[in-house]
Amino acid sequence: MNSFFFLDKAARQWPENLAQVQGEESWTYRQFRERALAIGGNLLSLGCQPGDRVAFCLANSPRILEVVFGCFAAGLVVVPVNARLHAREMAYIVENSGAKVLIHGGEFQDAIASNADLFCGLVARVCLDDAAGTEHFDRLLYHVNALASAREAVPEDICWLFYTSGTTGKPKGAIWHHRMVARMVMNYLADLHNIQPGETVLHCAPMSHGSGIIALPAVARGATNAITEGASFDPDALLRTVERLKVSHIAFMAPTQIVKLLEDTDPARYDLSSLRAITYGGAPIYVDQLKQAIAAFGPIFVQLYGQGEAPITITGLTAAAHARLLAADDPRIGSAGQTRTDVEAACVDADDNLLPPGKPGEVVARGEIVMPGYWNNPEASAETLRGGWLHTGDIGYFDEEGYLFLLDRAKDMVISGGNNIYPREVEEVLILHPDIAECVVFGIPDVYWGEAVHAVVVRREGATLSDKDVIAFCGESLAGYKKPKAVDFLEALPVSGYGKVLRREIRDTYWHGHGSRIGGGAGKRAGKT
Ligand code: AMP
Q1: Mean of the pLDDT values across residues 96-111?
Q2: Structural domains of the chain, count
Q3: How far is the CA of 165 from the centre of ligand 1 (A)?
Q4: Half-sphere exposure of 241 toward its Cβ, with a 13 Å CA cutoff?
Q5: Quick check: CB of 409 below 6 Å from ligand 1?
Q6: Does residue 169 belong to any structural domain of this protein?
Q7: Which atom of ligand 1 is nearest to the CA of 315?
Q8: Are 309 and 163 within 8 A, CB to CB?
Q9: Per the domain annotation, does 425 fall within a domain?
Q10: How much is the pLDDT for 479?
């Protein structure tokens, strides 16, 4: 089955429903289907063959879903690229995927033109604006080349390469085929949030990533995918859009966006009565912040935990589960939820032995949502999928009832004096301090301890907190060996294009000139970057 089927069906059942809206621009399902079939046919006419890769690097707009479904229709493999990447990083993904066509916004033209040698493998570049050396996006809409219908596909046909956002090492392309996409759509509707026809789903996070994936179940249900305007995240504009369009569901928010929403807006000033769900994930949210978010917006938060290698997803916590756990003052509100219906997950030790509940180890998963491997990378595929399990590189433990508590990325664990310390545990304490706005904890080289626990803290405006205050505060609730040995202060923490705190970027400044991150500790460190 070709995943274009979801759009085909929506266009037949709800032809005049609004499919996409951004500002003054709007398209019905009938129009969306026609445009996608035109894009698919025109990509073929530019010289692509079914199975070829087509990359796009586009700021959020209706073009993204048109290109995704255009590629599905033509049997092409879509390669979304984060629009916040540098031209050289974009070039790496284009080259690694062997993309024939790159579709990009006018804002990238100069950077691409001045790195032209890096893009020489392309057959064509397509730009949303008039730009030298490119085809205009309108060229993809020529009627004469439009497909009459989508190409037949078998479930194992590759349709998507999802490049990991690893903050170290080069990104790897997780392969998705049509069966995974169909599973992803069903899983989201069945296990996380059941989008209904005619509802409006709002996108305020990059649609090359989680938000764009959650657009697919919305298409399958004939819901409207509305997209906020403007390049940067604007909490006030977001809530005004919710009010104006009677949005029922915010597709995806990174925890950093939720925190900004809490800090910069007063929900009482808006009519948010239509809002039934806000999905978040991609990075940990601290329990205290989650509780504040529920207090401010109601029990409408849906958490997902997964990764590009197992999209939508491994575990989840529905809005109802959040409400139940919060009412019972149950600490599992801080978990990543339970394993989804058709996924098997467990934790393993460094030798890949399955661990009993309560014992921390690397989270592994298997099931139909797991990728078949990485694009052109048999070594990484074999390593990550060894023993038939996806090795996530995340450390966590399951409790007796199957709730997953994530501790950290395996490579973020600090090994100090032979003790394993999970930065998240220390951060959960720090964030409770009224003078701390943001924090990040990691290990730094130390001749005696191997690694020493180190905190970088952003003070709230006007606060005069000292390093000693921070360490003493940790001492009130953490074992001595987990307390930061030293604290530095920053004005703000750097975040990635997907809103994840760039822990390793900050940490690496402390490791400059040290060959190995692993000091004298006794623990064994494993996992992906
Ligand atoms: P990506 O493949 O870019 O989506 O990144 C996946 C990684 O983000 C996971 O392996 C986790 O380390 C992290 N992640 C995703 N969801 C969550 C979550 N709900 N809580 C904590 N970390 C998460």
Answers
A1: 96
A2: 1
A3: 10
A4: 23
A5: yes
A6: no
A7: 19
A8: no
A9: yes
A10: 85
